[in-house]
């Protein structure tokens, strides 16, 4: 992740915990713009979504066991 705005946003969102990050993923997938991502471009929001999905992947897989 080369974009510092994206990196800072992802770190900030992750501090809210897994359950909230899952909700953020849903909002981003729906195209919603919420306060934490309002200052980012559409491309940056997509990068945030991609990174959050990657971060949550191990937890999602664990939940499917």
Task: Pick out its properties.
single chain, 65 residues, mainly alpha, 3 helices
Summarize it.
This protein is mainly alpha-helical. Helices cover 69% and strands 0% of the residues.
Low-confidence stretches: none
Strand-pairing-aware structural class? mainly alpha
Shape: globular
Taking the sheet with the most strands, its summary is: none
Q: Number of DSSP helices?
A: 3
Helix and strand element order = HHH
Beta-sheet strand percentage? Answer: under 5%
Could you describe the 3D structure shown?
- The chain is mainly alpha-helical.
- It has one domain (4-63).
- It contains three helices and no strands.
Architecture blueprint of SSEs:
Elements: H1 4-14, H2 18-29, H3 42-63
């Amino acid at each position: 992740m080369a974009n510092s705005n994206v990196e800072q946003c992802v770190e900030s969102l992750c501090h809210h915990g897994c359950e909230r990050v899952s909700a953020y993923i849903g909002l981003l997938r729906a195209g919603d713009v919420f306060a934490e991502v309002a200052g980012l471009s559409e491309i940056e929001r997509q990068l945030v979504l991609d990174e959050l999905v990657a971060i949550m992947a191990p937890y999602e897989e664990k939940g499917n066991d």
